[in-house]
TrEMBL record:
It is a multi-pass membrane protein. This is Putative glutamine transport system permease protein GlnP. GO terms for cellular component: ATP-binding cassette (ABC) transporter complex. One of its GO terms (molecular function) is transmembrane transporter activity. The lineage of its organism: Bacteria, Pseudomonadati, Thermodesulfobacteriota, Desulfovibrionia, Desulfovibrionales. Keywords: Amino-acid transport, Cell membrane, Membrane, Transmembrane, Transmembrane helix, Transport. GO terms for biological process: amino acid transport. It comes from Pseudodesulfovibrio alkaliphilus.
Amino acid sequence: MNDITQTLTRVLPSRNTLWMLVFFAGLFGLAYGFYVATQQANYIWHWNRIPRYFYYTDTIKVRAEIEGRVANITHKSGDAVVIVEGDGTSEFYTVPGSDLRVGENDTLYMGDVIGTYEKGSLGLMAQGMLITIEISIIAIAFGIVLGLFTGLARISTNPCFKWTAITYIEIIRGSPLLVQILIWYYVIGTLVNNLLASSGLPQIPEMWFGIASLSIFAGAYVAEIVRAGIQSIHRGQTEAARSLGMTRAMAMRKIILPQAFRRILPPLAGQFISLIKDSSLLGVIAIRELTKATREAVTTSLMPYELYFVCGVMYLAVTFALSMFVQYLEKRSVE
């Protein structure tokens, strides 16, 4: 009987394997259902057009800026240096020798094509992704600093610090992020830029008002996470540190915060993942982050299924990378 049981155990898949098969079967069913739905809508897929929204090459035409005659053409390392002489002036242009369109002694008028060259550029969605990452990194950095100090003020015995932190947290958490973004851009941004303009100073770009709104919004939630993490450490830790002669600030910095850091990493990761996704709201103030760039691409290409699907995958890639980084920090903090 034992031999039969051992044989069946080796032959039959384990329970975990069966559940993994169920998982992949569910994914396949979901993908197939999505495919069937698109077929019912008579939608024609154009995946071959997607790469141009990440990187593309464009033909740049080098045009004459003066009227005159081609005085000389010199070839150097595959390029052609064209010298055009006009009435008392001369200009020189460098173009690839293989794409040269003129010869010596040719007469040129303003705007005539001298040559062409290929220039590679980032596509619309790649640019939007870079802006999203830039905004998210800066907002996360400011949010951590603001949340840390606000969280410490939240548990402070100083009533001014404590109630200032409480007021800030409740106001920010009690109002929608979209409303805060609009206030920062249309109210605060207008006032600040008007003051700068009246003083003859350069104005602040809209991206920084978007970053400010995200940072302050995230800071309120980070503050509560920090407060909860600090209060989760037993009070005896602080009392033991004080008995060893440490000040309250030293005990907080060397004893409490390192322990709290390990506990608040998972909720912090969730908050920062939400911040990355919330950056999609900045499109309402004309910041071309990933979602706005995708909407513009859909408007010109009429490929909503492909582009929005790729947009979602790009957000997933960024948030998954952040999640893996936080898990790495968790493992390092335990070691």
